[in-house]
Structures are given as C-alpha cells and as structure tokens.
Amino acid sequence: MQLTFIQGLELLGTFAFAVSGATAAINKSYDIIGLLALAFVTAIGGGTIRDLLIGATPVAWLTDELTNSAIIAAAIIAALFVSYVKKLQNWLNVFDAIGLGLFTITGINKGVAVGLPIPICVALGVITGSFGGLLRDVISGEQPFLFTREVYAVASMAGGILYILLGLHTSLPADIIQSVSVTVIVAVRLFGLHYNWHLPRIRQ
Amino acid sequence: MQLTFIQGLELLGTFAFAVSGATAAINKSYDIIGLLALAFVTAIGGGTIRDLLIGATPVAWLTDELTNSAIIAAAIIAALFVSYVKKLQNWLNVFDAIGLGLFTITGINKGVAVGLPIPICVALGVITGSFGGLLRDVISGEQPFLFTREVYAVASMAGGILYILLGLHTSLPADIIQSVSVTVIVAVRLFGLHYNWHLPRIRQ
Amino acid sequence: MQLTFIQGLELLGTFAFAVSGATAAINKSYDIIGLLALAFVTAIGGGTIRDLLIGATPVAWLTDELTNSAIIAAAIIAALFVSYVKKLQNWLNVFDAIGLGLFTITGINKGVAVGLPIPICVALGVITGSFGGLLRDVISGEQPFLFTREVYAVASMAGGILYILLGLHTSLPADIIQSVSVTVIVAVRLFGLHYNWHLPRIRQ
C-alpha cells in the first residue's frame, strides 16, 4: 500500500485528534474503555456527524482500517507515555491543525458532492474538523472548549470560505486551492495558539 | 417568494427556538461559535434527530435557506440586543409555543408518511418539538429543563394525541384538525407557563 | 404471538436496561418525561447508534412494539415501586447482563450482515450493548460509568471476540456459538460485579 502525501498528513491529523481524546480520558482517570472511546469519538466524531447529516452511511471510518489503526495506536501511545506525549504538545498542535485543515476541506467537498448550498458546505467542513472535540468535551462532562477558549472553528471557517471563494472566482488548479486553504487554516490556528488569540465572548 | 401563513408562523417558531439557544450561549459567555452552534442545535436539533431516526437524509434543514437565515438572524439579534431581547421574553414564549405546536405536527406527519406505528409518530412529534432544547442543555452542561421544570413536552404530547384522535375519529378537514391541535399545544404550554404548572417529579 | 426463548430473554434484558434508565431519572427527581426519555435512551440508545452508523433506518426500535411496551412497563413499574425495585437489584443485574450479552451478538451480526471488517463488527456489538448507558449518563450529567466503574464493555468485548473466533475457527452450530458467547459475557459481567472487578484506570 502506497500512501500519498495527503493521506500521510491526514493520518498525522487523525493521530493528533485521537491523542487529544486519549489525553482527556487520562485526565479524567478513565479506564481503557474510556481511553479508546474518547480517542475514537474525538478523531472520527466530526466526520461521523457530517456523514449522518448527509446520509452517507455506513459512515466512512467503519471501513477505514488505516484511520482506525492510527486511532488505536494513538490511544495506546498516549496511555503508555503520558508525560512524554505532553512534552511533544507543540508537535501535536501542529498535526492537530493540519488535521483541522484537511478535514475541513474533506467536509466541504462531501457537501458539494451531494449538491448542498455553499454556506452549508462550509458548515459541514467546520463540523467535520471540530465537532469531534465538541463530542469529547460533552461526553467527559467538560465545558466545550470549542465555544470558549480558542480560535479553532473560526480558523476552519476562514479557510473553508477561502476555499469556496478561490474555487468560484479563480481558475487555479484544485490542489493549489486546497493547499492554500489548508495552509491558511493551519496558520490561523497556530498563530492563534501562539499569540493566545481568543474570540470575544458574548456577555450580558 | 410568497410565504404562507403557516410558513410565517414556523419561521417565528424557529426564530424563538434559536433565540433560546443563543441566550443559553450568552449566559455561558460562549464566543460567536458557541452562539451560532447553540442557536442552530436548539432550532434544528429535534427535527434532525427525527430525520436521522427515520432515515430522511440529507436532513431537512441543510437545504432550508429560510430556516437557516432565521436562525442566524436570531443569534445575531440575541447577541447584539441581549437586554432588549429579555424584555420581549413574553413574546418569545408565545412564538416558542407556536413553534412547539407546529413542529410537533410536522414530526407526526413525517412519521405517518413513512408508515410508523401511531404511538411512535406521536413520539416523533414530541422529539421534533422538544429535543432541540434537550441537546442545547446537554451540550452546555445544564440539567435538561425538559425533564424537570415545565409543562413542555407534555403539551406537545397532549396536542399530538389529540391530532391523531381527531384524524382517526372525525371527518374534519386536515387543516382544521391541525389548527385545533396546535392551538391546544400553545394553550397548554402558555397556561402552564403563566400558572407555573409542573409535572410531579418522581422521588424515592 | 409466540415468543421464542431468546426473544423472551431479550425482553428481560430490555426491561432491565430501561429500569436502569428509569432509576437514573428517579435519582435525579426528573418528571415523567425524563423518566420515559431516560428509560428509552438507555434501552434503545446503543442499538440506535449502531443502526445510524450503518445506515439501517428507520432504526429498529421504531417498529418494535414489544420492545417499546417493555420499556414503558419498566418505566412505570420503576416509578411506582422504587424501593421494591431496588430490592430486586440482583435480579436486574442478571437480566441486564443477559441483555448485554444478547445485544452484543445482535450488534455483531448486523455488522457482519453489511460486510464490515471484523474488529468493527465487535465494536458495533460493544456499542449496541453498552452505549445506551453512556447516553443515559451524558444526558443526565453524570460521569460515564462505562469509562470508570465496572467490567461492563470489556465483558461485551471479550464475548464478542470469542463469538467471532468460534465462528471462524470451529464448525460448531451457530446457536451453540451464540449461547457460549452470551454465557461468557454474562459470566464475566456478573463475576466482575460480585468480586468488584475494575479495569485499571489510567493515571498520569
């Protein structure tokens, strides 16, 4: 089996998503069932919600052995090497941002493929990239980080809108448009993390 | 585009549902992502669960521009005019009750259309009308108001049962049956609010 | 209508699942809506998630009158006879374990029937047997017992793997393989309860 470069990046993204789920399970002192469940939910939750909404069943991850292996590997590695994994947090943030970028574009493309309106396609991109983390937080009883802490879904939304605009208004080749959009998502997300950007929170 | 009277009422109901989601986000000091997410989840969550259960995908709201516009408008208005919106709470309660009534009937009709047993159709009506609020509470970490505080799902259930009985045992025209049933739901809900009715809570 | 022995056991399992949901609602002092909702979610939540993931819609319980009647009966009995039901907890644990065993096998068979990879079929079995309880806990705001307290999902997983192995590597008749696997799940679960087995929890 020969992986393309993009597939390799997607696996790194999946790995990072799963590690963030596994880390949440470890922080809660869950057992190995909780570890696996949160790793999976975080990694495939967004794509699952997207597939359910558009009726693309059986949902994609059920038959995606490579993705499932990456998630299980991430859960085991996170559990065995907790403190070591925490030292690699910067790398995980980069991989997580790449995953956010790639999964956003995947989500948009799936929406376009079933003929949904453009704003809904962007929403499906954001759901694909970021609702796994939302499910992780809801299941483990945490306030959703997606709604409070960081420039995460907004990075996905910005890159998603750019992806649509470049597709509609330029004649650039598809992979250039995709690369630029993913790069913007990664950049916004990582700059946001580095400079501690936050969206204004709405108060009464 | 010419809206029918019913469609106009449905939009008011959707608007009120979305405001209640947006208000929950504001009460939690969520950011704009949380605002939009809770507005959408509250407004379309019940219908989404119904559509997923019966396999009606892509779920309805994905292609319903008018509904989506009403939700976004509700979120923005709620965020910009929080205190003003709170003063209009009585009107919002009326619109919310109308939404509960109309969405209950929509849910029942969809269940009937796919040939489900009658009690299940009523359950789908209740789910359509009230599970958006349940999702809102679960995601934002609140105890479900649906299970504790008010005559809400029960109003929907009462009107739904009436709707079925009138359809089975009278020869009244469909829109009369629908109007009577929605009116009963609105009345039970608003009387319940006004007189602070509660269902008995089950204690040990 | 003539029930087979297996169908009778499945109904007892459904009943026990629903009682555990109803008991959770009673512990939270929910009203009758909360009682019914949690009884249903606990009893049919796992199978619903499975059906949604594989696209088997309308989901099974919508047309399963016997199951729905058992759930409603369980909710009413639990509410009327709370203290008496608690005295029967040992029997309920046995029925719950039988339900866990049977629903695990049902879930695996449904995965096999749509041609999914074997490890995913086992995962669907575990989801069918134990994710209703997870939904119950998430909706009622409790930490998921599935991730912390007991040998529950692991019993399901062990029996599920055994079921697959016996099917692949022996020529035993299907109902023998099923009976052995269910018995193993019931035994592991009940021994685990009796001897207070816990999975190691992962700590930093």
UniProtKB/TrEMBL annotation, chains A, B, C:
**Gene Ontology CC annotations of this record:** plasma membrane
The entry's localization annotation reads:
Cell membrane
Keyword Transmembrane helix set for record: yes
| Pfam families on file | Gly_transporter
- InterPro entries registered for this protein in UniProt: Gly_transporter (IPR005115)
For this UniProt record, the keywords arranged alphabetically read as follows: Cell membrane, Membrane, Transmembrane, Transmembrane helix
Superkingdom to which the source organism belongs: Bacteria
Q: What is this protein called?
A: Trimeric intracellular cation channel family protein
